[in-house]
Amino acid sequence: MSRPAPGNRRSTKSEYIETDTGNKISRKAHIEGKPNIMLGGRTVIMAGVTMRGDLQRKQERPADGSESAAADKVSSTAITIGRGTIISTNTTIRPPMRSSRGSGPTFYPLRIGDNVFVGPGSHISALSVSSNVHVGAGCVLAPFSIVKEHCRILPGTVVPPAMVVPPGSVVAGKPGRVVGEVGEGWGQGGGGEGEEWVEGGDLRALVRKVR
Amino acid sequence: MAAPFPYTHYACPCSSSSGPVISKRASQLEPDEDQETFNPHDPRAAYSLYPLDHLLFCDECSQIRCPKCVNDEIINWFCPSCLFEVPSSAVRSENNRCSRNCYNCPSCSSPLHVTQVEKQDDGMLKPGDGRTGDEAYLLFCQYCDWTTLDIGVQFSRPTKITEQLNKARKARYTVQQPDSEDADKTVSKQLRNHDDAFDRLSVFYTEQMDETGESGNSWGSAYGSPANLARIMSLYGGLTHGALKKSREKPQPMREAAGEEEGLATYSPSDQDMDEETLQKMQTRGWDETASEEQALSTPANYGARFKDELWPAATTLRTKRGKRCRTCRQFIIRPEPKSGSARYRIRIIAHNNIPRLSLRPLHPIGPVQNPSFVMKSDHAYKDPILQPLSAQQFVLTLRNPIFETVKISLATPATTPGRVASRVTILCPSFEIGPAGDVWDEALSSSTSTIRPSDGGRSAAMASLTGTAEGEKQPEAGKIWEKTRNSTSVILEIVPGSLRPTSSIGLRDDEVKETVEEAEDDDVLEIPIYVRAEWTVDVHGEKGGEKEPKELGYWCVLGVGRIAA
Ligand SMILES: [Zn+2]
Ligand SMILES: [Zn+2]
Ligand SMILES: [Zn+2]
Ligand SMILES: [Zn+2]
Questions:
Q1: Which residue from B minimizes the CA distance to A200?
Q2: Residue of B nearest to A101 (CA)
Q3: Where is the composition biased (Basic and acidic residues) (chain A) (predicted)?
Q4: ipTM for the complex?
Q5: Shortest Cα distance from B162 to chain A (angstroms)?
Q6: What's the domain range around B500?
């Protein structure tokens, strides 16, 4: 938040490393496989966040060892996060995995859109979380779940594996069910001068406040 | 109230207690004259208050529209799981459910998935590497581990699951028992299947209609035709000669279903055995094996289910995309893009872009302002703001203008809030102007500069001197606006929260207080009703400098401030 609690302040260097594109990454985040992670810019990765970029899709037969296979491996992105997205403290982002016969586990790329807010202590293993989605604190988006645009996942929800959440849904419960629809004005406003940011809205103003 | 403090809820004028208000011009809506003060603690208030993102606006009627004063119109039906659009002609025959391979777990409602299992020669189920053994498929719940094996069903191929399921169900409920207790039992067992009973009844009544010469092609429309109406009239008195004759010609106009073959399930002594069986099963298997009510209601196939092993997968229920029309002028104010995966709109007129919106914040916040939706650290738990009773507190009320014209605002609020706990409220500057909203670029540029806040100390003082305002701390003053940006104006609101404890010092009638010592839920919530009236002018033909047409809009808002300390 804007003003850290008195005891919390780091005197020497700021908590966040800011990249050229304005991403803010906490020094206290655990990020593995950095080359396989794409951040869209003005995105915040907070303290205690674990990102498993090392879990990228591997070739079916690694024994082949051909150059094309190696090139493929380099280009495979494990985690893609859009612009103005906030990943709150102690959240884990782990690409979903499926075991196929013979070739062992295969990881699938995980995509998170723009202006997505993920509350603290969540676990994201979804295939995709589209833009303007608000995920409350302590949620689980189980492997291969797909959350479409403008959804609101209430705190403590467990979205079951491979569930597809249609656009504009409100999801709650364990297992998560669609319990309602967001209003037509979802995500409107906010981010303006001195204005409160709103769920599902533009999060740039909130991103600016993180320091 | 579930919303976090401070919040603003807007009242839709359609539910205002005085009926003809909607048709009146806004200028006639003097809150203190012919309209009573909006009472947020009124049990009815909850039905007319909405957060802004749920409110629409009709530009024809120049009025706020809420879910109660719009008509929904279904644009299409789609399956939320495969996002496949279902043509309206097929929706009814498929019982509003997806007829593709989408099923939900009858035990926990999560989506089910087709999973392959391989049977080895030893009969064990385990993952293999080759194509040995015969392939089998299951519907599998990855959330609670339920599989169709729990009901003894597996599939020979991963497609056409619906077909295979139906077959399996038929096979299961029409097993001809070899012993003598025979066909009867089979039928009654089948009748426990809701769909089956329905089908039989439907067939029976259709036949009846045909036999009695009724022309209706389905019994559902039996009372639609004039002939039927005449027959009904004749049955219930008013017998004309012709009708009497007609009814005599047909001695048996219609009878009801009379047997199990016809779909009537009756109690028979043989059912007693089944009851015994059920009781036995309950005793041996225990509570955990019985189906809950929710599970039994998951799909019509499960209506009679008593045990978990009778639960059938539930085909995913369809969802709809709906357009919304103004109930008064019938124009579309919401029209979504028909594509099921899309979140776009073709028409979307929302209150957010058409009415001035209010927000409240404390003038001297104690600690950072928290928005519980955006708590980013687990240890920063959100707490409702607590207000000290009987001590004056100042808040900044900001109104933002989404309209492209300068808007004149007048605010009105009762001096003391309605409800059991009376708090005093004063708006230091109740009428002012707000500048016009600009385009997106203006907005983007202005939002890159931070707000000037008097509590920022030296920096704000420097800013204040730059902008030409007086140095040092700004003092709230009656009749003066607090701060102003291009399209927002802030004023100071002074609140003296009432006391929850009955005291005579705050001027409440003693008898009233003593009667209601018992505290009702949310009595401690301080909510302030405010009537907002906005006036502006628009160019008549969209051309600048031409004729101006006055416009006005009035509505009630409720500001949720916090909870009053006990
Ligand atoms: Zn309404
Ligand atoms: Zn489907
Ligand atoms: Zn389940
Ligand atoms: Zn209208």
A1: B373
A2: B129
A3: 55-64
A4: 0.84
A5: 19
A6: 7-20+31-55+356-368+383-452+476-564
